[in-house]
Amino acid sequence: MKIFFGTSIPVDIRDQFSKYLQTSSNLKIERFKDEEILPTFDESVRGEEVFIIQSMYNSDLIMETLLIVDAAKRAGCNSITLVAPYLPYSRQDRIDKHRSSIGSKLISDMLEAAGIHRLVTIDLHAAAIQGFYNIPVIHLNGSRIFTWYIKSLKLDNLCILSPDQGAVKRASDFCKAFPDASFAMINKKRVKPNEIHSMELVGDVTGKNVIIVDDLSDTGGTLKKAAELVMENNAKSVYALCSHGVLSDGYSKNLTDSPLLEMIVSDSVPTALDKVKENDKLKVISCVKLLANTIEAISQKKSVSETINSI
Ligand code: R5P
Q1: Taking the CA of residue 109 as centre, how many other CA atoms within 13 Å lie in the half-sphere pointing to its CB?
Q2: Catalytic residues
Q3: Which residues, including other chains, have CB under 8 Å from residue 133's CB and lie 6 or more apart?
Q4: Over the stretch 218-236, which tens digit does the pLDDT of each residue have?
Q5: What is the pLDDT of residue 192?
Q6: Helices (H) and strands (E) in the chain, counts
Q7: Residue 220 CA: which ligand 1 atom is closest?
Q8: Which residues of the chain carry a pLDDT beneath 70?
Q9: CA–CA separation, 185 vs 287, rounded Å?
Q10: Are 286 and 267 in contact (CB under 8 A)?
């Protein structure tokens, strides 16, 4: 097994992986003046099981990933596992409006055409995206990494809330770790990307400490509106957790202006680690151990679910 990183993974996350697994830095990624990317493996990968760890949070990183996979394939490795904690374009999982694209299907076609044999990812926006791939997809439940933290807050009268219809399964799965918690959801309608039309609360949050569970936060608009609605409905406090802190421009103002006490994200999009410095309501919890244990289970041909359930 050989483990390599794309440029999205910063040194401190690489160091964390190195605590659990033997990793290699012998993947050189050069960039030309016109922004073309040239990855080169500086060690032999012939006959090896290659793992590439990369968070594809922008289009340039998608291209970089495809080229790394292409280089690994052409260098004669035995198999290529892409460990992509954040899989982009997952919000495009179907034709929502007439004549629009299905980005997540295109991503799957491109990754398979480049040559991956297996994908490891965390909390897809829609679990059915697994079916877009004709290779094994190991879809990890991201919210499990937050359970200990929410327990450490020692909140009574807990209510787990799904901020839209699509997040109901994720939020109700998270609820299993809190048997005394109640459940509520929001019926959300959107007119265009990043702009919410209306929100209607379904369930009672009066006097509750509410935890909103979502897959990702982009502008933070959904979480801000959801938190406002929850507080208007007489909740005691409101927190949010989401696996992927995409955190685009404007998120910090939304977070500051919202009644959220904290927004808790993972480092699946590593730029979240820099953003904690600009907003003290933001908390980041590492997903490295979850990924490292998954990689280890795969390489040792053990059950992934049994391995990660035992940690
Ligand atoms: C939408 O269905 C997703 O699960 C997220 O709630 C949404 O994409 C977050 O976007 P924003 O932070 O821009 O509201």
Answers
A1: 5
A2: 188
A3: 108, 111, 112, 119
A4: 999 999 999 999 999 999 9
A5: 73
A6: 10, 14
A7: 12
A8: 191, 196, 311
A9: 26
A10: yes
How far apart are the C-alpha atoms of 68 and 84, rounded to whole Å? 13
Q: Rounded to whole angstroms, how far apart are CA atoms 134 and 72?
A: 20
Backbone angles phi, psi at 157, to 5 degrees: 50, 50
Which phi and psi (to 5°) does residue 109 adopt?
-65, -40
Closest atom of ligand 1 relative to the 254 alpha carbon: 12
Instruction: Assess contact for 157 and 125: CB atoms under 8 A.
Output: no
Q: Which residues contact 8 (CB under 8 A, 6 or more apart)?
A: 54, 55, 56, 57, 61, 64, 270
Cα 207 to Cα 42, 90, 153, 175, 231, distances in angstroms: 59, 35, 17, 18, 10
Instruction: Name the pTM for this structure.
Output: 0.95
According to DSSP, the residues that pair with 274 across neighbouring strands are none
> For 164-190, what is each residue's pLDDT tens digit?
998 999 999 999 999 999 999 999 887
Separation of CA 221 and ligand 1 centre (Å)? 7
Sheet containing 79-84, strands listed edge to edge, beginning at the edge strand earlier in sequence: 2-5, 49-53, 79-84, 118-122, 137-140
CB 186 within 8 A of CB 163: yes
Beta strand 195-202 with 182-192 is antiparallel
Cβ of 194 less than 6 Å from ligand 1: yes
What's the CA gap between 283 and 103, in Å, rounded? 29
